[in-house]
Design goal:
Keywords: NAD, Oxidoreductase, Phosphoprotein, Tricarboxylic acid cycle. Its EC number is 1.1.1.37. GO terms for molecular function: L-lactate dehydrogenase (NAD+) activity; L-malate dehydrogenase (NAD+) activity. The N and C termini lie far apart (47 Å). The model has no long low-confidence stretch (mean pLDDT 96). Helix 6 runs antiparallel to helix 7. The chain has ten helices and 14 strands. With 312 residues, it is an alpha/beta fold. The chain folds into two domains: 142 residues, 3-Layer(aba) Sandwich (Rossmann fold), CATH 3.40.50.720; 160 residues, L-2-Hydroxyisocaproate Dehydrogenase, Chain A, domain 2 (Alpha-Beta Complex), CATH 3.90.110.10. Bound molecules: 1,4-dihydronicotinamide adenine dinucleotide and oxaloacetate ion (OAA). Oxaloacetate ion binds next to helix 8.
Length: 312
């Protein structure tokens, strides 16, 4: 018998889903099943075949199929949910809650039916509330339902810091806490360039401008694209999290995790530093926060709760 290959299903074959499928295949992390609604079956098959035909050129051996049939997702090691509406200029992520929470319910039922042991990674916005909704609908343990926000928000912060200092992005580290909205909390105090605290390299005024740009980073791209939202950096972020889980890397990465008292919050999904590994969220890391940081986080939590209440 051959070696059992890993299988990742990506639900939603739009901009983020298709890009994520390609990135996962290019890194040979797993075979990929790309799923969309029956109306979109043929374009989804077309995207998958087009990606597969890149494999001889790029030299990757992952298989990619497109489908609208959840039977094809059976036994997935990881399922990534990108299904649903994206915002357009003038909308907030929270405006998507009514439409996307319905989609989360139906998609989650299908995932659970065919892959009861899988781990679910959620991208769909408003992502903190959508991750909570998938958690409730799936009945899965908390460590197997995870949301993506912090890797992307931190990547934006790292990009802007690298541009500011003219230093490699590789040497810039940071942490963004809280909900994936305009009041997220980039933790400057825990951010470094080559081990040097950013506060020693950049003035407080300039740092505050970069923090503000990070908070509005999603909206900046929405404004530029005109008819959708970001997908390259979101897909790269999902791929990094998928790799950590599939390879049991125990990476220290921010993720949207279910909190039961950590940071003083209960029964909420929120962006926090975690250890990501083969079991999904292996641990939530609790950092000491100053009074000001805690106040900012409280504000972000209020925004997330407001949207979660619509879902419940
Ligand atoms: N958490 C984060 O950091 C980010 C979240 N997002 C969110 O991800 C979501 C997807 O964004 P895009 O891919 O750009 O949108 P898109 O519109 O390009 O793709 C969405 C896809 O979902 C499909 N879909 C709708 N209902 C479905 C169902 N019931 N089952 C399967 N597929 C279904 C649509 O047919 C479409 O192909 C949006 O909600 C967006 O706001 C996007 C970027 C970053
Ligand atoms: O801004 C949006 O709507 C999509 C998103 O979450 C991001 O790019 O951060």
């Amino acid at each position: 018998m051959g070696i059992q290959r890993r299988k990742v299903s990506v639900i939603g074959a739009g901009f983020t889903g298709a890009t994520t499928a390609l990135m996962i295949a290019q890194k040979e992390l797993a075979d990929v099943v790309l799923v969309d609604i029956p109306d979109q079956e043929q374009p989804t098959q077309g995207k998958a075949l087009d990606m597969l035909e890149a494999s001889p050129v790029q030299g990757f051996d992952s298989n990619i199929v497109g489908t609208s049939n959840y039977e094809d997702t059976e036994g997935s090691d990881l399922v990534i949910i990108t299904a649903g509406m994206a915002r357009k200029p003038g909308m907030s992520r929270d405006d998507l809650v009514a439409t996307n929470s319905k989609i989360m319910k139906s998609v989650t039922q299908q995932i659970v039916k065919y892959s009861p042991e899988t781990t679910i990674l959620v991208l769909t916005n408003p992502v903190d509330a959508m991750t909570y909704s998938v958690f409730k609908e799936s009945g899965f343990p908390k460590h197997r339902v995870i949301g993506q926000s912090g890797v992307l928000d931190t990547a934006r912060f790292r990009t802007f810091i690298s541009q500011e200092l003219n230093l490699s992005v590789k040497d810039i580290t940071g942490f963004v806490l809280g909900g994936h909205g305009d009041d997220m909390v980039p933790l400057v105090r825990y951010s470094y360039a080559g081990g040097i605290p950013l506060e020693k390299l950049i003035s407080p005024e300039r740092l505050e401008e970069i923090v503000e740009r990070t908070r509005k980073g999603g909206g900046e791209i929405v404004g530029l694209l005109g008819n959708g939202s970001a997908y390259y950096a979101p897909a790269a972020s999902l791929t990094e999290m998928a790799e950590a889980i599939l390879k049991d890397q125990r990476r220290v990465l921010p993720a949207i995790a279910y909190l039961e008292g950590e940071y003083g919050y209960k029964d909420i999904y929120l962006g926090v530093p975690t250890i990501l590994g083969g079991n999904g969220i292996e641990q939530v890391i609790e950092l000491d926060l100053t009074e000001d940081e805690k106040a900012q986080l409280d504000k972000s939590v209020e925004s997330v709760k407001h949207v979660m209440n619509v879902v419940e």
